[in-house]
Amino acid sequence: MADSVIKIHLADDHQVLIDGLLAVLKLDPRFQVVGFSLDGVGLLDRIKENEADILIMDINMPETDGIEVLRTFRKEGFPCRVIILSSYEDVKLIREVIKLGADGFLAKNCAGEEISDAIENVYAGKQYFSESIRQRILGSFSGTPINEDRKYASIAEGLESITDRELEILKLIGQEYSGQEISDQLGISKNTVETHRKNLIKKLKVKNSIGLVKMALKYNLIN
Questions:
Q1: Which one of 53, 86, 126, 186 counts the least CB within 10 Å of its CB?
Q2: Rounded to an integer, what is the distance from CA 165 to the centroid of its chain?
């Protein structure tokens, strides 16, 4: 992560939660809260003005909710990264916000350390989920608790273990790039591309690249 201060904008319809986040984030010199909003109206303009790097936002806000904010971000290609902080942990909602471009999802009862970890990871280009959120996502792959279904537990573990580089390659496979084209695009050898492809096949329990794409689409790894 860069040495520069990470600029953060907060959005929640409860002032008490805003105040709590401000108190936590002020303790870390890496972070600077540059603004906050109590609803989604005008949120994009405010973030453009203060040039926030990360938006920490509730889903349930008056007038313009978090879903609409994410849709606007996606439509306009806005570069600010988004961490959802919500008391709702419904898997369908979590998948929806991820699909719309959210980079992280935290339960509102998470600890201050977890908020700091989420900011650091998301700023570095990674996704971050609270442990409770991660378990809900993994458990949803089978529709039953993970420990009740070995096959789907294995797939869930494979999905969780996919690296950033493997995800890059998976996306390019989904766009029908050849091994050589992926090699040229990422500046790595064709043999390295093939090694990553084989690792993906093993992790996702499929037989070939077609199976990889099907699995990636099923679990929203690619659009």
A1: 126
A2: 15
